[in-house]
Amino acid sequence: MGREGLGWTMALIPEGVIDEIQARADIAELIGRYVPLRRAGRHFKAVCPFHQERTPSFMVNTEKQIFHCFGCGVGGNIFSFLMQHDRLTFPEAVRQLADHVGVHVPESGGGASDGSQERLLALMEKICRYYERLLAAPQAASARAYLSKRGVSEQTRRTFRLGVAPTGWTGLITAAKATEVSADQLEGAGLAIRGKTGHYDRFRNRLIFPIMDVRGRVVGFGGRSLDRQDPKYLNSPETSLYSKGRHLFGLSQAKDAILAAKTAVVVEGYFDCVVLADGGVPQTVSPLGTALTIEQARLLKRYAEQVILAFDADAAGEQATLRGVDLLVDTGLHVRVAQLPQGMDPDECLRSYGRERFLQLLDHSVSIFDFLVETARRRFPGKGAEQHVRAAQFVLPTIAKVPNVMLRSEYVKLLAERFHLDEAAVAQELAKVQPRTLATAEPVAAQKPGAGTAAQGAERLLTGLVLDDPSRWQRVRDRLSLSEVTDPTLRRILTAVCELGDSTRHATPAQIVSRLAEEGYGSLVTELVTLSQSVVPQEEALEECVKRLQRNTRRREHAKLREQIRIAEEAGNEIEVQRLLTECQEQIKGG
Ligand SMILES: [Zn+2]
User: Fold this and answer.
1) 333 alpha carbon to ligand 1 midpoint, in Å?
2) What φ, ψ does residue 40 adopt, rounded to 5°?
3) Which tens digit of pLDDT belongs to each residue from 253-298?
């Protein structure tokens, strides 16, 4: 991962600042703004905002500053609540709460500690307003006429903050100078280009589409030529704010609609996006003239469960769909493909058929499986076994990316049927393409440590008890080392407890959630705390857990020794066998 992107530099928020925010904010006050809370003993209860329920099983623990839902298992602290409720990243949630409680968050990392990021954002905002004003001015009558001809209303023009760049070579530079913004600053923002005789504007006589981050802040611009200037579409170059492939055009306007519909419509162009929003399909975004990237797919995953690809119905559109599909499937999104009439783009389609017909087209979009099978049939026509095999091979890499095992095997069955192939053989071929996908698959976040065996149960309970009162770790650490906890996730959590606390100060569960939030362990932490609170008396339970873990360690060491003895015996190494046997007896005595 590079240091250039905004998301990365923002991840380095000092822990002291996070603690300060946590100390000032109150979880009941925060959650109470979203769902009505009812006092229930020492805690608060509510109807869970994360799953459908009638009887409240969502609990807010103000003493520990955490929440947990017994219905769906979601839990965390103030930051994780915002992350999940408003689909924010951890740094975004921290910043939002910082604003709320009045804590200053310094910009850090990536050389942006001097506030240059903020200044650049302010400059982009200023320029966006300038372009907007120009579009509203009398001279821009033809640009406005062009917009309405393409089906963009005044309202939508405002929502997307469309603008126009002046026709001359230095319109922006001159206007900026009057407000003390230099050409060098504009160059830094990607809006001026240094030529032989001085700077000139990057965008000239172009319709301007501001590119915004999820919070609606302008990070770059896209421009469509209004004369015959090439290229027809031009984007801002990469800056410390804008990086190609990390933003989706229209997302800041579309995110609420996407959340509500659980579905995002992905189109190719700016115009498709704006026209669809105007025509009553507000959940539309565009990947900004590039093929979808994994960052964009993950960004969509924050808001959507399903994605409908509505690319142009031509060869290029088909290519774009094929490129996007694997990435989206890989992130676990359900992908469907809208089948537009041949040769049409979504914008034309909506304008010629109207909203109802267009929504029907989206409704009847085909599953990614059907789309691939159709494409494969067209590419490998003919009835021979050889063509069928090639067609199936074409579909397999995408099926291999489907994270759900049951769905994957269902697809194998269907694929075998469609191309008259042997199901077992198709499954075997699928196994061959498998390794490629494993390397790129999403890391399995918050893999639940199996509650299966008693040993695992003891580890879970021990972790929960330590989370509930971190001073407990100091009482047991002389008898138990972290390496004796076999589950890597639980070990990770306990490590965070040790790292965050010292002899004078202990970490709180809320702080631990913050530390682990980005790794996706928030719910597990609150689940474990809740588990620990269900056992009484806690101190005896802790003692029992420690003993059980110690017994397990001895058992493992014993098994290891026996294995070494077996190997030494097979190798005929008598001396080694004797040595190991002695060690084994020592061990038994010691235990
Ligand atoms: Zn719930």
Assistant:
1) 21
2) -140, 90
3) 999 899 889 999 999 889 999 999 999 999 999 998 667 887 788 8
Q: How far is the CA of 395 from the centre of ligand 1 (A)?
A: 37
**Paired tokens of 425:** 């053989």
Please give the Cα distance from 191 to 349 (Å, whole number): 34
CA 261 / ligand 1 centre spacing (Å): 19
Phi/psi for 104 (5° steps) reads -85, 125
Where is average pLDDT lowest: 324-333, 337-346, 440-449? 440-449
CATH topology of domain 116-242: DNA primase DNAg catalytic core, N-terminal domain (3.90.980)
In this prediction, residues 111-115 reach a mean pLDDT of 51
In CATH terms, the fold of domain 245-444 is: Dna Topoisomerase Vi A Subunit; Chain: A, domain 2 (3.40.1360)
Distance of alpha carbon 406 from alpha carbon 399, whole angstroms: 11
Count of alpha carbons within 13 angstroms of residue 409, beta-carbon side: 3
* Distance from C-alpha of 531 to C-alpha of 280, rounded to nearest angstrom: 47
Share of the chain above pLDDT 90, in %: 30
**How many whole angstroms from 282 Cα to the centroid of ligand 1?**
28
- For domain 453-591, give the fold: DNAb Helicase; Chain A (1.10.860)
User: Interior CA angle at 445 toward 62 and 443, to 5°?
Assistant: 155
Residue 409 C-alpha to ligand 1 middle, in angstroms?
30
Intervals of CATH 1.10.860.10 along the chain = 453-591
Residues 337-374: b if buried by 16+ CB within 10 A, e if exposed: bbebeeebbbbbbbeebeeeebeebbeebeebbebbbe
With vertex at residue 585, the alpha carbon angle to CA 584 and CA 588, rounded to the nearest 5 degrees, is 90
Dist. CA 36 → ligand 1 center (Å): 14
Q: Quick one: CATH architecture of 10-101?
A: Alpha-Beta Complex (3.90)
Residue 454 confidence class, pLDDT cut points 50, 70, 90: low
CA–centroid distance, 20 to ligand 1, in Å, is 28
pLDDT in tens, 183-196: 999 999 999 998 88
Provide the pLDDT confidence category of residue 590 given band limits of 50, 70 and 90: low
